[in-house]
Amino acid sequence: MIKALILDLDNTIYPVSSIGNELFEPLLQLLEESKPQIADEKIKQIKAEIMRRAWQKVADDFDLSAELKQTGTELLRELTYDKPMQTFADYKEVKLIDLAKFLVTMGFTNMQQSKVEQLNITNDFTEIHINDPELTKDTKKEVFQDIMLKYTFKPQEILVIGDDPESEIKAALDLGIPTVLYDRNSSYAQQKADHRISNFKELPKVIEQYA
What we know:
The protein has two domains: 4-14 and 84-208, HAD superfamily/HAD-like (Rossmann fold), CATH 3.40.50; 20-77, no CATH class. The mean pLDDT is 94. The chain is built from ten helices and six strands. The protein has 211 residues and is of the alpha/beta class. GO terms for molecular function: metal ion binding; phosphatase activity.
């Protein structure tokens, strides 16, 4: 029986695209100023990736210089977002589910906390974990383990829900935790998780399978 849900934040509860260009403007400008050392096509790919993954991981994956990575980190460290934000319309379906809920998100503390506040979702969760790569080497896998230990959950009593097969989904699968890939736009042709949904209305039926 499922006793708790663990959710990702970015592109799971709200669309990063709704604030990304404004939020990341200083970083996007930095990338533009890096031409011609970085090709246009590579910059385009980097811009797309920072809308869905932590800057440090993107910088490493694209072999950006240590100097550029550090400058970008310094720009992002203190960034916050102070304008109203909206969740995905179907997020209201998650709020109706009477289970303990945990939010686990990776990113800079100030930035992620400001998103939570502007989305007004603090009270939706038993706990909120911001996994800041500057402050900890722990991954989401370690955070999931900590939650299980603290609340004595067995892996099969938790459902991890997120949009990234290589982040929260992989971490959960490694621990034997059932997973739900939130794939709104059918971005993944192959099954990357135990379950795949495109709307949170589908989530209760997934939970029922573990009754």
